[in-house]
Amino acid sequence: QRMYDFARSAHQNDYKVIIAGAGGAAHLPGMTAAKTRLPVLGVPVLSRTLQGVDSLLSIVQMPRGIPVGTLAIGEAGAVNAALLAAAILATTDAGLAARLDEYRDRQTATVLASNQLP
């Protein structure tokens, strides 16, 4: 019930995007997306049994009409979900856009300085 209440009221409470991490059958991102018009980013959680592949497949297989932006499994997916949410928010926030650009410039400089391309 809490998830339903949160998802239904998120827009009214001035949320702009929702990040939902989930493991196993990974219902949370899809159920949240079904109850809100906001963008929902789904992050599959790393699991012991199937290393998060079960969660990834559950999140990515949402039916037409209930989109969930699906990211990578685990920490990389969580970081990228935050960056994607920031990019979405930056479309209407110049200050955030500038900070995101600075972050990306620092990230590029760090990678180039280490001579280790991802």
Task: Describe this protein's structure.
With 118 residues, the chain is mainly alpha-helical. It has a single domain (2-93), classed as Rossmann fold (3-Layer(aba) Sandwich), CATH 3.40.50.1970. Helices cover 52% and strands 10% of the residues. It is built from five helices and three strands. Helix 4 crosses helix 5. The longest helix is centred in the last third of the chain and has 21 residues, at 94-114. The termini are far apart. The mean pLDDT is 94.
SSE layout:
Elements: H1 2-9, E1 18-22, H2 27-34, E2 40-44, H3 53-60, E3 69-70, H4 75-90, H5 94-114
Parallel strand pairs: 1-2, 2-3
Defining traits:
10% strand; mainly alpha; single chain; flat; 3 strands; 3-stranded parallel sheet
Compact description:
The protein has 118 residues and is mainly α. It is built from five helices and three strands, in the order αβαβαβαα.
Helical coverage, percent range: 40-55%
Output the number of helix runs: 5
Topology order in helix (H) and strand (E) letters = HEHEHEHH
CATH fold-level label = Rossmann fold
How big is the Rg?
16 Å
- Judged by helices, strands and strand pairing, the structural class is mainly alpha
State the CATH class: Alpha Beta
